[in-house]
């Protein structure tokens, strides 16, 4: 009996120990903390795209043209973990997407998935590089305006435009329709379509014009080609102004300028060189004439670059060429302050200004009286109207700096000035010689040409150290040839 009781006690104790041991084992179960993305693929693409995993960043490069907005991913993660967004769900990968992996134990790890589009394997260039009528004598090359995707060519007076064969050069691997060398009727604009290797297209409108008879209106003499408007020293009622009034200057837009000339006072007219048969256009302004605004002290008879879309503003960034060539002469300057501007790049400031300054200028010592009147002082030297000499300068950086073009210029001498703006530079050449290469970025620019007097009938009241010029005293510039690119 005693042995039986001992055996029973042993069995009971063993059962208790086993039960306690099982409960302890159950309470110490360890949950997994694994939370890795082991692979990330787009297996619906052909070929399958597999992501490159670097720490917590995943990057995939998909073929050019892949729609990033509806990509379905196939993701492998650690056992017992979950992921959000889920595998197999379409996502927009236009921007990086955050994925969160949650381990069995509730800890998390974020991954950033970035999808990159491979570069276009096909050339996307689709530009017209040159457009030339090589069969003409001399050949004519069109000016191509990349900003507006237009090309313009100008043929000699009375040329036939109905059967022309252009030679066209386009971007490498691109094609063009109609084809190069194919006859076209250019009596009206023709649309050309350039197709890149990648199949994208770009249209160009090509217009061919006929230059006007060069013995007629000023517009025709200088082949202005509808690219300019002019401001005159008259007021908008065509009245002659002598009080240097501001804000009412007469303006002629391109469509009206074609047949316009100002013969009553001679401010804008066709003239002949006194020693040759060459025709030119005279631009003149009187010192008491109407001013464009209170922002200027002086009157003008001046062209401003313009087109049918309005102001023709441009930047010199990039390789698009902006170029003005003037063959001209300063023929007359005011007596007391003999200064005349004859060509500009303007953008609210005078970035480039070609100016004649005469040697025969007058002198005036201004002073302010007790009432603050600066229109008082003493003329110490009168200007010499018989002195026709001076210098030509190119002012730049809003007239803060200058280079001398000619330090011994005589009124009436014809010179050629070339102003080029391209590739963040401005280049000025004078009679074929480089005078300025200026590294600068300019925006909202336009060319000006003609006569911009730098003297007024109110020099003294303007605080200038020059005597007043007579209200009828003239500044004049004659342009014989002008090209705008």
UniProtKB/TrEMBL annotation:
Transmembrane segments: none
Keywords, sorted A to Z: Lyase
Pfam families: Alginate_lyase2 (PF08787), DUF5018 (PF16410)
Domain of life: Bacteria
Annotated Alginate lyase domain residues: 226-484
Keyword NAD: no
Single GO MF annotation: lyase activity
Residues of the DUF5018 domain: 26-117
Record's keyword annotation contains Lyase: yes
UniProt-recorded name of the protein: Polysaccharide lyase family 7 protein
Naturally occurring in which organism (per UniProt): Reichenbachiella agarivorans
